[in-house]
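User: two proteins, same treatment. go.

Assistant:
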Amino acid sequence: MALIEFHGVDKAFGPKAIYTGLNLAIEQGEALTILGGSGVGKSVMLKMLIGLLKPDRGDITFDGKSIIGMKSSELARVRQRIGMVFQGAALFDSLTVRENVAYGLREHFHMNETEISERVDWALSLVGLPGVEAMNPADLSGGMRKRVGLARTIALRPEVLLYDEPTTGLDPINTTRINNVIISLKAALSVTSIVVTHDMKTAFAVSNRLAMVHKGRIVASGTVEEFRNTENPLVHNFVTGQAPEDEDMAALMARSQ
C-alpha cells in the first residue's frame, strides 16, 4: 500500500477546472517530483494533501486513512507527520534564525530550552548553516533564507517533506546547494520527499521518480532516465524547453490524451 494516494480527485475554482480525475500513488521513502507548467495546480496538490484545500470529488489517503472529512484534531496529527517548505521560506523577520527554527517546536512539542537548542543546532547543521543562530532573516541571502526555512521544517522531524518550488529565484550555485540539501536530507532522515517544480535541473537531480501534470491529470510518470528519453512529445517539449509550433499544438494535445 502506498503511503499517499490521490483517487479520482477533482478540484475547480469557479469555472476553472484544476484537476479532473487525478490519480497518483506515492511510495514511502521515495523522492517524487511533480512537474508541469505554471498554473496547472502543482501547489494545489500539496495543499489538498495537508488539508488546506478540499477536493470537490474523490479521495486522498495518507498511511491508509482518508484525510477527507477528518476532524481537526485528526488532521492536526497528520500535519505533524508532514512538513511543508514554502516557496518564500516564510520566515518571521522580527525573530532571529534560532527563534524561527524553534518556533514550531515551542508551538507543538513539550520540550525544555536545552532540548530546543539542541534540536535547532541539529537542524541548522543538516542544512549546512551552523553558527547563524543569532542572525536576522534580513541579513541572509535568498539561498540561506530558504535553508533556514527548511531547517525550521525538519526540526519537527516529519516523515514527509513537501517542497514548493524550492529553487525559484535562486542563482545556479544556490540552486545546486538546495538540491544537495534535499538529497542529503532524504538519505539522513529517510523521509518521503515530494518536490513541486518546473526547474528540470532540480527535478533530475533530486528525484527517484517524476510525474507530469497536464490538463488536470497525470500524463506521464517514470524514472529520470525514462523522462530524459521519452518519446511523448508533450513531455519531451517540457523537459527540453521547446515550444511547439501553434499548428502542432492540437496534434500534441491529442497524443497526450
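Protein 2:
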Amino acid sequence: MSFRCGFIGFLGRPNTGKSTLLNALVGEKIAITTDRPQTTRNIIRGVHTTSDTQYIFVDVPGIYKPRHKLGAMMYKSIYSGLADADLIYYLVDGSRRFGREEEAIIASLDHFKKPVFLILNKIDLLTKKQLLDLLESYAARYQFSELIPISALKQDNLQTLLEVTRRYLPESSPYYPSEQKAELSESFRIRELIREKAVALTMEEVPHAVAVVLDQLSKNRDTYLLDATIVVERDSQKAILIGKNGSMIREIGSAARKDIEALLGGPVFLQLFVRVEKDWRNKPGRLSELGYTELG
C-alpha cells in the first residue's frame, strides 16, 4: 500500500471545538482549549503518523470580525494557513443554531478550490433526529465532499474521519519524523499553557487582553527554572490577575506548572509576573515581539 501524506486545514467559528479536535487527533495536548472565544491566536500544526499515512493538521483562529490589529493579523492568518491545505475540515458546533457567521463561511468555501468536509461536532449533545436534520440542512447549502458527525470531546467517530480523510491525501513521503506530534517550539507551548490558565481562571474583562512573555527557561540539576510575564492592557486587569494577596496569580501558576511539567518531563519552578502595556494589541512592533506575526 502506498504512503500518503497531506495537510488538512481547520475552519470554523470560534469555540466550535477545533483545538479539542486537533488534540484528540494528534493524541497529545498541543493546542490550548478554553470556553472563551478566540483562544487560538496562532497557526498551530499537529502531526499524526500511522504505518501508511501522515496527517498534518493546521488549526487557525476562529473566524470573527477583527476589532484591533491583533485581530486583523489573526484574520489574515486564517486564509494564509489554509492556502496550501489539501482539504479543509469545516467544523460546526451542532449544538448552536445556524446563523450569519455560518452563512458567511459557507459563502467563502468556493474560494479555496479544494475538497471541504463538513465536520459536525458535539453530536453527543444531539438526538438522532436533530443530527439527521442538521446534516440534511447543511447538505442543502453546499456540496460538501463528505459529511462526518463526530464528538471531539468524547473522541467519537474520529477513526472513521481519519479513514475517509486518507482517501483524499496525495501519495507522498512523510514531511515529519513519525514520532513528531507538533511543529511548535518548546517556548511557544509553555507560553500558551500559561495563557490558557490565565484565560480560563479570570473574569470576562481579562482574557482577550492577555499575552505571555517567557523571560527565562533554564535547568538546575533536575529542575526547570522558568520566569514568565503576563502582559495586560489595564491596571484593573493586572489587579484581577494578581488577586487578593496574590491568590489568583498563585492559582494560575500552580495550574500551569502541572501542564508544563508534563510537557518538559521534570519538576518545574515557575515564577509569574504581571505587567501593564496599554493598547499592546494595536502596536504592530510589539505584536511581533510577542510572537504574533502578520501572515499572508
